[in-house]
Design a protein that fits this description.
With 109 residues, the protein is mainly alpha-helical. Helices cover 70% and strands 0% of the residues. The chain contains three helices and no strands.
Length: 109
């Protein structure tokens, strides 16, 4: 199938339109990427500005003490020694109990 001069005239008259559309497609892709990049950047800035919700630590101060012991092993050892000494002194003290204590209620006026 041969190309006639009339066909060439029709093709050449449309070449500038084809070039413009392809340039617009390339610019559109670049514009789309820049828009997505700015959206991602905005989301990251929002996440930085937000206050994060705390995680559940469980049973209160026990978790805090364990956390401190892991990060400061030297001070944790001192704290362990103090805790052990306090427990030993509490156990070594004799506990006196009154057998009649708590058995009777005085309701006299």
């Amino acid at each position: 199938m041969a190309i006639t001069p009339i066909d060439l005239q029709a093709v050449f008259s449309q070449v500038d339109k084809v070039g413009k559309t392809q340039a617009a497609v390339k610019e559109g892709q670049a514009l789309h990427q820049s828009i997505q990049g700015s959206q991602v950047q905005r989301k990251m800035e929002e996440q930085i500005q937000q206050v994060n919700e705390t995680q559940n630590t469980g049973e209160g101060t026990d978790k805090v003490n364990d956390h401190n012991k892991k990060h400061n092993p030297g001070s944790g050892n001192r704290q362990n020694r103090r805790d052990e000494e306090a427990e030993e002194t509490e156990e070594s003290k004799p506990v006196l109990r009154d057998p009649s204590l708590g058995n009777k209620i005085d309701i006299s006026l």
